[in-house]
Amino acid sequence: MDINYCLRRGEEADYADLLDFGNYVFKIDFRSLLPKLYGNHPELSADHVLVTEPGSCGERIRAMVGCFKIPLRVGGDHLLVRGIGTVSVHPYDRGKGYMKLAMHKAIDDAVAEGADYMVLSGRKQRYQHYGFDKCATQYEFELSASVYDQLRRFGVEGICPPVDETGCRVLSEADSRKYADVCRKLYESQPVFAVRKDFVETAESWRSELRVLEKDGQFAGYMTIGHAYGSYTVNELVLRDEDGGEDGMGYLPGVVALLGAAVRDGAESVQVVLMPFQSKLIRCMTLIAEHCRICGGYGINVLRYAPVVQAYLQVKADSQPLMDGTYVFSVTGREKVRVCVADGRVTAENVGEEVPADIELPHLQMMNFLFAPTG
To answer: Is the separation of the CB atoms in 269 and 234 below 8 Å?
Structure first.
């Protein structure tokens, strides 16, 4: 079809229009849902790829893809990630190929700026076409209201007596904000974290509340508890490492107090999401949760394998012994990488075609081999 359209990056003058467009297509209020992006951030207009058509009153947005910068700290390394979101096409313009145009431009731009990988939340079958697959491992635990009552009355059979949450206090949302700097410091003590311009604004996105835990009058950690879609989800639960003990059971009083706050707010169950490096908290949650699953939480598209593998494998080496050695993997049609481990230090570098590979796989399969829970 001969369609008159323009494919371009957004400008600050587009901010109100692109917000209205996203609200219309998704039928939600992005300003309240994602204040970190749409609260009042016209400077992020350029992080949107727009497809427009001419109209009687000027350009009209017909499709849009958000492609947001996420500076990431992985151990001692800095990675640049681009997060894809607000992928939207006007209902009247579906079938014109606008989403493909915008997605490919977002990916091409990320490659051109040297981004290491991209991340999104969306249907696997839709985004595999663009090089994404669900590989990023996360642990999900379901804690029911009955767990709260059981732990307070009986504890864990043969392991601990009834859990006494005396001395543990969950602060209100308003009082929790006063601890913003302390929460940020604890958050940034983790092996992997995204650099946040405004910690509270980010923590309260997805209609979440920042809730701080005090233990014996001292800051002990925080959670972000959201109920954007009717269910209670703790997307971040970060507690002081020294409180957990060797087996993580020292976290129980605080976890019970946090669960109690959600139950008193009307939650019948709470889903808690943890990252693989939160090993002691994972052991605690495994013991008390009604359900647990290990899953690929996000779709990722690795653009530069060497720095991504080096950064994440080093995080692993920092927490558990890795065997010394060298391994070469080849991503069909893309790059060949040699990984070396020596005395707990990891290096990864691109090598030429003359270097024999220990394994060669296409892009999607290689991401699963390296990064999926089943890899």
So the answer is: no
